[in-house]
Specification:
CATH class: Alpha Beta
Strand order of the largest sheet: 1-6-2-3-4-5
Oligomer: single chain
CATH superfamily: endopeptidase domain like (from Nostoc punctiforme)
CATH topology: endopeptidase fold (from Nostoc punctiforme)
Number of helices: 4
Strand content: 15-25%
Number of domains: 1
Distance between the termini: 13 Å
Shape: globular
Length: 132
């Protein structure tokens, strides 16, 4: 069973002031701090299948939807853009998307992503303890 509260706590405590280009590692380590050991991938864009394997459900696959509302522990996998072949991975902490840094502008980690608006998928773990 995955504990999203422990995962988010770990992610918040380890977020850097600015991106280090290590989003997949930081989010993977946070997920593991919550109790799930993921298969390690080089690229953030490749983590979707590992999340699904461990019980996460893909709840959104788009970049424009009106029925989705972020929930603490949601994981976003953003597809690659020019200059960023590995894509991006982040987790929602209840206020912000966090990868290796706190993303104050939404799920897209930087200006080039916000300009390109690549598709992304959101994964949510359906069962979690009631509190930390």
């Amino acid at each position: 069973m995955w504990n999203k509260y422990k995962a988010v706590e770990y992610l918040n405590q380890n977020a850097e002031p600015l991106s280090l280009g290590q989003c997949a590692r930081y989010v993977r380590e946070a997920i593991e701090a919550g109790g799930i050991k993921l298969v390690h991938h080089v690229s953030a864009k490749d983590y979707g299948s590992s999340l699904v394997h461990h019980g996460f459900q893909k709840i959104v696959q788009t970049h424009a939807t009106t029925n989705y509302h972020h929930k603490l522990g949601d994981v976003a996998i953003v597809q690659p853009i020019a200059g960023h072949p590995h894509g991006h991975m982040a987790m929602y902490n209840g206020s912000w998307w966090v990868s290796d840094f706190v993303q104050y502008h939404g799920v897209y980690p930087g200006h080039s992503y916000r300009q390109s608006k690549p598709p992304y998928a959101i994964y949510r773990y359906p069962h979690t303890p009631a509190s930390a």
